[in-house]
Amino acid sequence: MRREGDMFFKVESEVRLALNKEQGIRKDMGWAIALHGGAGDIPLSLPAEMRKPREEALRHCLQIAVEALKAKVGPLDVVELVVRELENIPHFNAGKGSVLTSKGTVEMEASIMDGATMNCGAVSGLTTVLNPISLARLVMDKTPHIYLAFDGAQDFARQQGVPTLDSTHFITAHNIQRLNQAKQAHTVQIDYTQPIQNYTKKETLFANSDSQIGTVGCVAVDGLGNLASATSTGGLVNKMVGRIGDTPLIGAGTYADARCAVSATGKGEAIIRGTVARDVAALMEFKGLSLQEAATCVVHERTPKGTVGLIAVSAKGEVAMPFNTTGMFRACATEDGYSEIAIWPAAQVE
């Protein structure tokens, strides 16, 4: 019997209950949902054949989320459900659409976190798992650990009987082309990179001149103020084998507690250095900032321009979706009827 642990969680629960009372969180505050499909240097001239499928996918996933929240499905189940759907859509850099390593392989990663308990699970280095986010959920629910990677994660997937496919399922012609492009340019590229034309000058391995950004994520809160976050990605085009980004790192790409839930997208190394997701919660906790104030501060004041976007919801049902890149594929909805599907800042498209 782990009496010390039992006492810890009893005290933790009492603290969270007191926090909810202090913040005036009511049971009828209303649910809210937000999701993203990556951010980056997305030009206003983005071809319709690249833009419309992603917008339709966001609309589809948002509708799934809204219906689930209306049916009183818990936030943790909702974020897993939505990210699973995003992983199955090849237009995003996760699951089926995962980009390739320098050796032409996939190494997928994901994480999920429950704000009510702060339980979480994460995985990296997956090559055959159809839905990495669901394996991350199983790590959270079925093991004493938080993070499994590479062979250990693959073995656990087999033990749990999760759906797997041959790794060739994840290697699309489009992503082979993108890998060849990155190799030609001697760069590591992030999603939404535009085709390289008249390339003559070699750049260093981690050159930023043509790097864009991509990942998928979802955050949700129910009418009781319960929060959850989930994030999934294929990483960087032409990344070194074994590279791990921010997505599976709790507090960097994913975080949820009693105040907010956050999913980040961007240049993983910058997000890790800034502990971006946790920083939003910390500014709310220690400085008393609102969700919008905290998210805006982290994105526009605490991280380099062109490196990050995030989605966040608070226990009060607020939504924030700031980014310091050109654009971010994003969508949100709240119980009071507000909804949004967008890519660029409103001022740019008016």
UniProtKB/TrEMBL annotation:
The positions annotated as site (Cleavage) read G214, T215
UniProt-recorded Gene Ontology molecular function terms: asparaginase activity; beta-aspartyl-peptidase activity
Residues annotated as the enzyme's active site = T215
Q: Does the keyword Protease apply?
A: yes
Q: Which residues does the annotation say bind substrate?
A: R243, I244, G245, D246, T265, G266, K267, G268
Q: What is its EC number?
A: 3.4.19.5
Instruction: Indicate what this protein is called per its UniProt record.
Output: beta-aspartyl-peptidase
